[in-house]
Request: fold
Amino acid sequence: MGADRFMQAAIDEALKGLSEGGIPIGSVLVRGDEIIGRGHNKRVQEGNPMVHAEIDCLMNAGRVGSYRDTVLYSTLSPCYLCSGAAVQFRVPKVIVGESVTFAGAPDWLRSHGIEVVNLDLPECISMMEEFIKARPDLWNEDIGEL
Reply:
């Protein structure tokens, strides 16, 4: 089973970020059957440590009122910063492309009532593994390991 169309949109965002010289992590926010926000990690492109994929996605969605009927897709398991945004806005469900290369905070999300679904997609894993091998400096900066 490959990525559904929403995860594929998140993967497309990740590839866009990579093509811009950034870190290949993408995210989309879905309500019903519609993408209402999309984004990708822009820490490198904007020189801003806060512009993670999920944050960019939420910022691009704008004011959407309640998030209680949305689903946040991310190609990589969200870190505590991005998980905190999901908790803050009461996003009920997060769908993750993979957590092999970065565990993220799924247990913390679950402890706040958020359903977490990990698709464990080979294309997401290989995308991150290739990036980490090619750019360990950027990856380590992104995850605070410098």
User: Anything to note?
Assistant: Strands lie at 26-31, 34-40, 70-74, 93-96, 115-118. The first strand starts at residue 26 and ends at 31. The chain is about 45% helix and 20% strand.
